[in-house]
Structures are given as C-alpha cells and as structure tokens.
Amino acid sequence: MIYTCTSNPSLDYSLHLNEELSYSKTNRTDKENYTPGGKGVNISIALNSLGIPNTALGFLGGFVREYYLDLLSEYSHLQPLFTRIKECSRINIKLVDTTNEYGINAYGPRVSEEEFQQFSSLLNRVYPHDYFILAGNIQDELKEKMNNLLLDLSKEGVKVIVDSDDDYFSECDPFLLYIGENDPAPYLEKGINTLANDKTYIYLKSKQEKYRAKRLDHSLGVVGERDAFTAGFVYASQRGGNLKESFAYGLASTRLLNESKSLAKLDRDLLEKYCKEVEIDEID
Length: 284
Known about the structure:
By secondary structure, this protein is an alpha/beta fold. It folds into two domains: 1-18 and 31-174, UDP-N-acetylmuramoyl-L-alanine:D-glutamate ligase; 192-284, Ribokinase (UDP-N-acetylmuramoyl-L-alanine:D-glutamate ligase), CATH 3.40.1190.20. The chain contains eight helices and 14 strands. The protein has helices at residues 39-49, 64-72, 113-122, 143-155, 185-189, 225-237, 243-260, 268-275; strands at 2-6, 10-16, 31-37, 54-61, 78-85, 90-96, 101-104, 131-135, 159-163, 176-180, 193-197, 201-205, 210-214, 281-282. Strands 5-4-1-8-9-10-11-12-13-14 form a ten-stranded mixed sheet, with helices on both faces. Strands 3-2-6-7 form a four-stranded mixed sheet. It is globular, with a radius of gyration of 19 Å.
C-alpha cells in the first residue's frame, strides 16, 4: 500500500479577477473555487489519476474538515484517513488578476500530544515494503516527533520518501529524499537516494548510480512538478522498477502534468508512452 502524509493540509481558496487588482475600489471576482491543498494530498490525487490505490494521512480539524473530505470523495482510488484535531485547518488564499498572482499561506493549526498519538496509532497498519510519503510543510513542533516515526518505519522496511523544504528528515534513513539544489554528497555517503535539480536538469543519485535528465522547457512554471514526479516514481517502483526505470516514469509524469496542467488528469496510457521517450544520461 502507498501512504501519503500531509501534516498541514490547506483548503485552497482561489479568486480570479477579470481586471487588474485595485486598491481604491471594491474588487469583484468573476470566478472562484476551492481545492484540497497540500503536497501529500497532491501526490495522492496524482496516484489516483494513474489508477493507484493509496491512503492519505495527516491532520484535519474545524469547519474545514468536512468540506475538505467531501472534495476528496470524488477520487475513487484515494482513501482519506486524516486524524481529527480540535483546531481549524488552514485556508490558503490565491488571488489572480489580469497581470499578477498573489498568494497568502496561513500558518495552520497546532496538534496536541493526544492528537499526535492518535495519528501515530494509524501507522500500525503500515507494513514492510509499503511506501510512506511525507510531503510539504511540517509544523516546527512536530518535526522531531515525525522524524522519530519515520525512523521507526524505515527500520521496519517501509520505503520512506520525504519531500520537505528542509533537510531535517535526512536522519530518518529515507528511501528517497528531495534536496533541491543542495549538495548531494553528504546524503549519498549515508546511502540515501537523492533527487536534486537546477534550472536545467533533474538529477537522481544513489551511492552506485547517478542519472541526469533535462527539465521540460516550461516545467519550472507548473505547480506540482515534484508531486507528479513522486507519483510516477512510486508507480514504477512499487511494480518492481529499478532506480533508472522509476526515474523515467517520474519524468514522464512531469511531462503529463506539463500538458494537462492538472494532477487529477494524468493519463496512464500516455505515461507508458512518454516513459519510452525519456532521455536519461548516466553521469559520473
């Protein structure tokens, strides 16, 4: 089974104006929508579009909870299993006018010790060779606790994947760690598979294997590129694909996102087709 974990999910409220934002009058939208946000949930949605069953874990509370879960109910391969918390989950706001895009991300709720223990008890259903993907913003007060849980999962043979904006979780012996533009050498010495990138290339490296592929021309502007990659990588890996094959599927998945502009619209047949067209270089 594949589990994703979104520690601090958000209900994303998007507002669209058909003119430039004005500070001297009342602005009125011509379109608005709500979407379930958070990198772990994004990966779950991408996996769902590829027909891969998965379970979404994390924390949800307040009046946001029921509406968020209702939005997820349309995804037939996604099982939400969020721990209920007392404080209200965050609402992020995105405002798009004819020239600019503005975003405001809320800090989010605090999770009590009792609530975290309830979440921890759910991990008893995660078994060796399962995948556990921790992605997105992690509240500072939860990092040490979450790292200890991930370390226990890794010791039990669970394939832990971490995509967070700091390297705090490199100590949990992950199967795959996203490091952005950081130097991979310290992680490779520990035997950690690393995914890195610059503006031109994406790199996947292990202690024995090192690969590079060119980024798509427009992929830097597409929201969810790493989420799509993770879904494609796990899609291949859980079927027995080696590191290079899983890399190819991850890259093909980012191409699908680049074309569809939606993690919910990744096409499985096209994924197989594009995977055969991916060009990967082996590097020193």
